[in-house]
Amino acid sequence: MHVMLPPADSTHTLFEVGVAYDLTNEIHFDQPFDTTAIQPRQQVSEADGRIAALAAAHLDWRHARASYLLVDQLALIGPELIREQLHANWRHGTATDWRWLGGADVDYRHDTSFGLTRDDLQGEARLGAERAPADYSSSLRMLYRFDLGNSQQQGDARIYPDFYLHRAQISYAHFGTLGSEWSLGYTLGYRTFPDTSARNYLDHQGEAFGLVRFASGGEISGRGFLDRRAALSDSATGDRFWQGELELSLRQPLSPESWWLTLGGSFFGTAYDVPTPAFFHNVLWRQSAQVRYEAGLAWALQGALEAEELRAPGNGGLGDPDVSQDALNALREEYNQGAFRLGFERFGKTTFFVEPGFGRRHYLMEATPGHDLEAHSSYWFVGANGYADIRLARPLKLRGSADYLYEFHDLSVDDLSAIYLAAELRYALGR
To answer: Which domains does the chain have, with CATH numbers?
Structure first.
């Protein structure tokens, strides 16, 4: 196994200033029902844009091919948004196979857009150790993590309650020939809520991953995740559940280094100890088939078929839908969805990706005019997403992203359109 080693000792810095802008607009339709006059539906647009000055810094310090410190900082200051993000990762090597690991993340936001005033603070600190041989063929890692969250909001309910989260993690990974690998991990978490101890809970999470690569260039990978969350109070029904996730993927070359076929499938399900109208049993299945063409390092084209099914097993655990309105509402959430997406990607001085797509979501229990208006209405949708990273000059760079979605519902009053745009213009001051 050949390992690319960084320089023995090096320090790299990058400072950037610029301007950032984002726009969010959701368009829906209101049908007036409070008058006897016949009136057409009314289009309602909820748009808001934010502009802010930007300052970013990056530090990459490495020592003796065993220790490093990576720091990324981003500050945004504008009339509606003030945000500070800081990410740090640290590793300290020793004379043995053991090394120390650490890091911290801070994210503060003061946001007055959409007629609301939000003050959010999220932070994380981590400290641990890792044992790995010089060729990094295996890794035993133990970490302690501490997270906190604080949210204050005027004009609406808070995004999330204040919390403290303690986590102890242990994981082992083995890296074999041809890049194959497997890993196992376990995390014990304890989360407390200063505002209400009734929501305090213990969390047990297990995760397994495996990747097998073949000499032909193909690979098979799989990941499994199991979570048992147990609230200390029986009243916290939303935090008493089993949750599982399984992902499988097959990637196979159809021609040497040009055409690729990727088949994937996933399962995600949650079973609650005591189902409620807000938290009931659910299962989400996804399948996909993608063909991708790569023209060397210049550009790539891909097309994908996707399918998705949401189910509420056992009527969500809420009883007989003939006598239980809650069970009936759970069944109203079930749907089948199919989509086709076409993506184009370009690499180099100008890098961009664009992916238009269309599809249909069919609810198994549909809303119909004059009948079950409490159910969802099925719809066709079209959308596109993309990003661009353009180097205008040596120190000047433009970044942008966009997402667009339009839903054509069988009940036109439910039609919906949403768009999100973001752009950053950055000027590098030094390296």
So the answer is: 9-430 (2.40.170)
